[in-house]
Sequence to fold (283 residues):
Amino acid sequence: MTYTCFDVSHDNGIAHIQLSRPEKRNSMVLEFWDELPELVREIDRDGKTKVIVISSTGPHFTAGLDLAAFANVTAHSESSNEAHAQATKGLGFYQNVLRMQDCFTALEKARVPVLVAIQGGCIGGGVDMVTACDMRYCTADAFFTIYEINIGMTADVGTFPRILNHLPEGIVRELSYTGRRMSAEEAKSLGLVNAVYDTQEAMLEGVMDVAREIATKPPMAIYGCKNIITYARDHSTDDTLDYIGIWNATMLQQSEVMEAMKAKQTGEPGDFAPLPPFRKVAG
Fold:
């Protein structure tokens, strides 16, 4: 399938999604918000993919939301009937925000880890996007900006509920209130990113090395780790301990444990069961 905003490739259990509009700084146009969740869910659905890597093209990861595209939508909706448009404007805005939030929630809810490689600017909606991923890697010239304050907005697509899991509250408030740039070095020192590389090529090679390592592990165990880590983030210790006990009682397979031990001892790749494909609901 051909996408407007992305190129996709698959190799040995790794799905590589690339933002593919460098001439537009990979801004998030209307198609972006439909294509990304559809793409992620389709990759996750068949159970064959073990890791998703997201990268970008050109000098910047993304310039964030394409305001012109959304301004045109708003202008069109208000021109036909001004009174009716005013009455429904709030609901329409809310529904659109929910759609955009769902786009990045698809990354967090994917059964497989999502690694993101960031070069240059990661601006506005880009911050919403990368904070929904499992791990973040960047080039030395990368920077992060919660840009919305500079255009009179409050970030609403996912930055605040997620970035607070990675950065101290005072830093988040400063970034949000000022719209300043956070450098790659600062982001790594505070734990927002896992590693910083000199070049985009070195970064992508390093991220793929991590992805390949993850892809050698039992997929169900990796899914369990991702699921439990996210659950623990949002629940109490007691609730999480109970949940992980139920998870392993239900999901843990002795054959997978034995295969993992065998692979560790022999150095040979383990023959692990793939994640089960999602069944399509009829109707």
Observations:
- The two ends are 24 Å apart (CA to CA).
- The CA atoms of residues 29 and 69 lie 6 Å apart.
- The first strand starts at residue 6 and ends at 11.
